[in-house]
Design brief:
single chain, about 1000 residues, alpha+beta, Rossmann fold, Jelly Rolls, 5 domains, seven-stranded mixed beta sheet, six-stranded mixed beta sheet, 17 helices, about 30% strand, binds 2-acetamido-2-deoxy-beta-D-glucopyranose, binds calcium ion
């Protein structure tokens, strides 16, 4: 029991470390939920009131939805510093916009107000943040479409806190329940009743037809629920309807719905997932109704920061003092935002205040501050004395340490560091830690964990330029993107005598103000040639060279730097090899166009071998995902060679959604214990890089069926046009530090055995071959270790009952003989043809398949998605009309719809359906199943392949010349059930 408790605490710790959230659960009450308002939003007290109302309503709703377990106890709202100060506003302490649980901000491209939660982890893993627009919070007209705001908040909170997924699916709105049954709307529970209508424009509609190629309702068909339902579930489907007060649980979960919840959580209901959470384990039902939440308002002040720098003797080793000075100068001269206050403290066995807080009002103040950076070292390391002096610097000016930031850099061991943990916790300051070299004290990160600071780990291998990256990564977390420094390039390497460091930095349209090119070297100044996109050349003579032996040359470009490719060539004219580095930082070019940014996360920031680490990079512009970028990550262990990995946004392996701007990858190459530093590089090429829509959004209810059978429609949802979205972003480069994580439990390298299975295959598809009765299966090969390398063999199972193919019963299902099936290397699309012996084709038969991969060390991967092939005979009974609608025409008062006569080609028989790949886009979103139509008499199989498949294949797999025509369907489509 005691152990369990301890584990739980650990889990909770991990939970908030990962997401940045510092929400605590105390006797069922969520404390310190942070809602942050973007600084670009003009002052609006109505919005603050709306937030208060929303939280109050949400708390009551959450309490009953979770069967009296959870409620909101305290909520903090961060008011931007741009709003008029008020007495009731308290000072922000360790909260920040960047770490907030809920962000209130406008979308860059105005397109509706869909609330959403940024989720990138698997089932049960917390998300990053919830995003509401100001209009969503203040415009009551949106109630009809989204429901009361408190209910929406609970829907999003379940995503964020408990890692459950949506039970609707805009990309796969219908599914076939099997047998002779009609298609149904993707929903939970299946007890939701409503009408399937096809809008004809204006106020008229007709019944939906069934598309025989998919066995689903035609594209454009809408499921309109009745306003009054008997079912109470579920909140992850349609929280807006009054009757909905519960999550789907085991008793009413719709296992057949083609939604992300089923795909991600292996067909478990949302309530089962919530019950498996650490929150659930550490709480119990509460008998009395909880009090209303307390909402406090905090206002962000100016940024106040103190550099607390180690000057112990060990800083002399490996040129650390010089490297620190180079990196800290970049921070003071280029990174920290104008208007901030900065102080500097150094420490060894005792601490010294080098300068009290000075406000960065102009460039000469930046320069002045660099003169306080340490150059000499003394003996001893007393981290707490450094931190305390930092606090003194804040108190000297402010009378408070709340909300101030310390950047603490040390390379030394200090056994007494825990003596100031409590003091640090009480201070309300944020401590960012930079561990330099492998001797830095192990507890250093505790200071960051306690205060919500960033953590960096820097090796003495200067090649990586990581100390500079750490300082460049210390931008303010205020949400004011237009003021933040953005790093475009960061490279360092040893360059031989007379050799060159060459490269290209792309300055895109969104950046260019305050652009600096900084070159550093180890021994003697190199020759520099920098050519701008217009051909103008800059040499080392144009760079300002620091004459205080910092070995740095710096060039600031006046105004906004030219957009395009800047080519650099740095030549080592020294007689021996030396390390040369280049760093380029810039800021946004316009306050109204948000720059493209990259942020990097890890699955957790401590990792015990053999769990795999997952690394994510989020590439976005003004909350819109940016897709088509090449994203690479370098993981640099304390000791040993860095590992480079490419991250993918392909919806496979560790990546849960394709094209959501989150690029992900498993990392398993652990070679030793200790800190691992992360650096992410984004390259976007002209023509490939583009913005995309958010995919996972709250359900916008299209309309209701009223008590009297009339239909009330909501106005159509505003959407940005594809043109707006896909404006060519041009070429882009970004480099960012992703902080560090700590690994433990790694065995000695020569004793490491393979413990990692191939990853789950999530894009299995199947169809029946039209010519020779073979089933053709296609999927993307996983690796030996998750998504890396090559597995050894596959196991494929088939069944008439999909539930048999799930984990648990997979072993018992009928095996498919996989003789002759070779395993491809990870990421390669492969296929397999299979002819069952005694397979009798019966009308409407569904055959299901699932696959898993096994590696050379007998590690067994998870069971894939379940893929389905439908066999249809031509003499199909006429398609019945959709269930609820009647052909009685309604009159059309006001905003009611009327039924127009259903066109009489409604009962199209399969023989009328042309197997053509014409530009019929009816099924563009229903690529989930491939329906095979069998001409019974001749036992000739006339496969009529889904149109979508054809269309997509033409675009992407032009010369795919095999049995497997369907390999090109959107890999993100859910091929489950
Ligand atoms: C400092 O840097 C120079 C030039 O890269 C190198 O030759 C020297 O060995 C370094 N010093 C130490 C102590 O690492
Ligand atoms: C770590 O400390 C030990 C003993 O003080 C010293 O010999 C070693 O050089 C240090 N290592 C680094 C990387 O500073
Ligand atoms: C960038 O610089 C231009 C002039 O060089 C200025 O007009 C613009 O406001 C600046 N943008 C930002 C975000 O400060
Ligand atoms: Ca993704
Ligand atoms: Ca393996």
């Amino acid at each position: 029991m005691a152990l369990n408790h301890w584990l739980l605490l650990l889990l909770l710790q991990v939970l908030h470390e990962v997401t940045g959230t510092r929400v605590k659960l105390n006797m069922g009450g969520f404390e310190d939920v942070v809602i942050a308002i973007n600084p670009q939003i003009p002052e609006d007290n109505k919005m603050v009131d709306a937030i208060k109302d929303m939280v109050k309503e949400a708390s009551t709703y959450l309490f009953s939805a979770t069967r009296q377990r959870f409620y909101f106890k305290t909520v903090k709202v961060i008011i931007p510093s741009t709003w008029e100060p008020k007495n009731e506003y308290q000072r922000v302490t360790t909260e920040s916009y960047d770490k907030a649980d809920v962000i209130v901000a406008d979308h860059y491209l105005k397109h509706g107000d869909d609330p959403y939660t940024l989720q990138y982890g698997g089932c049960g893993e917390p998300g990053r943040y919830i995003h509401f627009t100001p209009n969503f919070l203040t415009n009551d007209k949106l109630h009809n479409a989204y429901g009361p705001r408190g209910r929406v908040f609970v829907h999003e909170w379940a995503h964020l806190r408990w890692g459950v997924f949506d039970e609707y699916n805009n990309d796969a709105p219908f599914y076939t329940p099997g047998g002779d049954n009609l298609p149904e709307a993707t929903r939970c529970s299946a007890g939701f009743t409503g009408q399937y209508i096809f809008p004809l424009g204006g106020k008229s509609y007709r019944d939906c037809k069934i598309d025989h190629r998919t066995q689903l309702y035609e594209h454009g068909c809408l499921f309109v629920p009745k306003r009054h339902q008997d079912t109470a579930a579920s909140i992850m489907y349609l929280q807006s309807l009054p009757s909905v007060t519960q999550f789907c649980d085991k008793s009413n979960h719709n296992i057949k719905a083609t939604n992300l919840q089923n795909k991600m959580c292996n067909y478990r209901s949302t309530w089962e997932v919530i019950m498996a959470s650490p929150d659930f384990a550490s709480s119990s039902p509460i008998m009395v109704p909880p009090p209303d939440p307390t909402v406090s308002l905090l206002q962000k002040q100016d940024r106040v920061l103190c550099l607390v720098l180690d000057v112990s003797g060990s800083m002399d080793a490996n040129n650390r003092t010089v490297r620190l000075k180079q990196a800290a100068e970049i921070f003071l001269l280029q990174v920290i935002e104008a208007g901030s206050w900065v102080g500097i403290v150094t420490f060894s066995s005792t601490a010294a205040v080098k300068t009290h807080l000075k406000q960065i009002s102009n460039d000469s103040m930046r320069k002045t501050l660099t003169e306080y950076l340490p150059t000499r070292t003394t003996r001893g390391t007393n981290i707490c004395s450094g931190v305390r002096s930092g606090f003194q610097v804040f108190l000297h000016k402010y009378g408070s340490t709340k909300g101030c930031e310390i950047v603490l850099l040390t390379d030394g061991e200090d056994t007494a560091i825990s003596s100031c943990f409590d003091e640090v916790q009480r201070s309300g300051s944020i401590i960012h830690t930079i561990a330099l070299g492998s001797n830095a004290t192990k507890d250093l990160e505790t200071l960051a964990d306690k205060t919500g600071g960033l953590k960096f780990s820097i090796t003495d291998s200067v090649d990586s330029n990581s100390l500079i990256d750490a300082f460049s990564g210390l931008s303010s977390g205020s949400g004011d993107i237009s003021q933040q420094s953005i790093q475009l390039e960061s490279r360092g390497q040893s360059v031989g005598s007379q050799d060159q460091l060459n490269g290209i930095v792309t300055i895109d349209k969104t950046v260019g103000n305050d652009t600096f090119f900084v070159v550093t070297w180890g021994t003697s100044p190199p020759e520099i040639l920098l050519t701008d996109p217009k051909g103008r050349e800059y040499t080392e003579k144009d760079f300002a060279v620091d004459n205080t032996n910092v070995r740095t040359a710096r060039l600031k470009i006046d105004g906004t730097a030219e957009t395009g490719e800047w080519i650099y060539s740095i030549k080592n004219t020294h007689s021996g090899a030396q390390v040369i580095s280049i760093t380029v930082t810039t800021r946004a070019a316009s306050a109204s166009v948000p720059p493209l940014i990259v942020k990097s996360y890890t699955k957790s920031d401590t990792n015990k071998f053999p769990s795999p680490m997952v690394i994510y990079a989020e590439v976005s512009q003004g909350f819109l995902p940016v897709i088509g970028a090449k994203v690479t990550v370098t993981v640099e262990p304390e000791i040993g060679t860095p590992v480079e990995l490419e991250l993918y946004d392909d919806g496979l392996g560790a990546d849960i959604l394709k094209n959501d701007g989150i690029y992900s990858r498993y990392f398993t190459s652990f070679r030793g214990n200790g800190r691992h530093n992360i650096k992410v590089r984004v390259q976007g090429k002209d023509q490939t890089l583009r913005r995309s829509r958010r995919q996972s959004q709250a359900l916008y209810l299209t309309g209701f069926v009223e008590e009297d059978g009339q239909i009330t429609m909501n106005p159509p949802k505003p959407e940005p046009t594809d043109d707006e979205l896909q404006t060519n972003l041009g070429s882009v480069s970004r480099v960012a530090s992703g902080g560090s994580f700590v690994v433990s439990g790694v065995p000695l390298e020569n004793t490491i055995t393979d413990v990692y299975p191939p990853s789950k295959i999530s894009d299995l598809e199947v169809k029946l071959d039209e010519d020779d009765d073979h089933f053709c299966l296609a999927w993307t090969a996983p690796g030996n270790d998750y998504d890396t390398g090559q597995a050894e063999r596959y196991e494929i199972k088939m069944s008439g009952n999909p539930l048999e193919l799930r984990h648990g019963t997979f072993d018992d299902a009928t095996s498919v003989n996989t003789t002759g099936l070779a395993v491809e290397i990870s990421g390669v699309r492969q296929m397999f043809r299979y002819k069952p012996h005694n397979f009798t084709k019966e009308n409407g038969t569904s055959i299901y398949f699932a696959i898993r991969a096994i590696d050379g060390s007998s590690n067994v991967g998870e069971v894939s998605n379940i893929a389905r092939a439908v066999v249809l005979l031509p003499a199909l009974p006429p398609t019945p009309a959709s269930p609820v609608t009647t052909s009685t025409a309604h009159t059309t008062p006001d905003d009611k719809y009327s039924v127009s006569p259903t066109p009489d080609d409604k009962h199209t028989t399969p023989s009328n359906v042309k197997p053509t790949c014409a530009n019929d886009t009816n099924t563009i979103n229903t690529t989930m199943e491939t329906v095979i139509i069998v001409c019974a008499s001749a036992i000739i199989i006339c496969a009529i392949v889904s149109i979508t498949v054809c269309v997509l294949r033409k675009q992407r797999y032009r010369s795919y010349d095999t049995c497997m025509d369907i390999t090109a369907v959107n890999k993100n489509a859910l091929t489950i059930l």
